[in-house]
# Entry
Amino acid sequence: MSKLHRYRSRRAILFAVPVVAVLCASGSVAAQSGPASAGPVDPQLIEDLVAANRILADQGVLDGWGHVSVRHPRDPNRYLLSRSRAPELISVDDIMEFDLDSNPVDAKGRSLYTERFIHGEIYKTRPDVMAIVHTHAPALIPFGISKVSLKPVYHRSAFVAAGVPVFEIRERAGMTDMLIRDQALGRALADALGNHPAALMRGHGAVIVGPSIQRVVGRSIFLPLNATLQMQAAALGGPVTYLDPEEAKKIEEREGYGLGRAWEAWKRKAMAKP
Ligand code: MN
# Structure
């Protein structure tokens, strides 16, 4: 049993006691269905999550579908994600809190993303991951349906050197409609992702993870760009020179300091739209 799972079990016990006490005292079974909230979040983080959705829509990474989440800063067993809405329209009021089984804390009758299990199951298996993007970016599709692997072609996408595996949903679930509709499929995708920064989903899109909202937004912009550039280089014919793993490592160490300059510009442009 992992540290995270032990922690979750303890929390489940702690929360179960007051719920039972309330039910007995009131004699009512009109119980609260959602898990407990981990409490309020810094408005700046919510604003960044809204900006992430709008930036990725503005940059053509998210279409009418796709989503961005962030782990709750005060509880590793909660995450924040919009209600089911097109990313470019999302505002602060759309952001909801979920447990890692992807149950909403307080749905308030709002509709939820069908594929929210992508987020919950990856947060369970990757304690290092603080933010996740699910995208259908067209440039990524050829690398999920062919035998050609994504490789790092330029400095902005050095993280690709860590490997981008392909998730084949048929191996775990046979014939489906391709969507990650439940915890089991989310777990299968998390297994395919392993310790990598991203995984392609064959015939569907990709999931991209990172240690912060800013980093995952950067990776989500530069992964499809890397795919386009790699295809263009291959089309020229002849051998292609990729980043050396040592170069990629040095760049990734530097990226840890953040994407401040680009983030400010992306955010201002995306948030200026009505
Ligand atoms: Mn999808």
Observations:
- Residues 3-32 form one domain.
- The first strand starts at residue 67 and ends at 71.
- Residues 65, 115, 134, 136, 204-205 surround manganese (II) ion (CB under 6 Å).
- Confidence is low (pLDDT under 50) at residues 1-31.
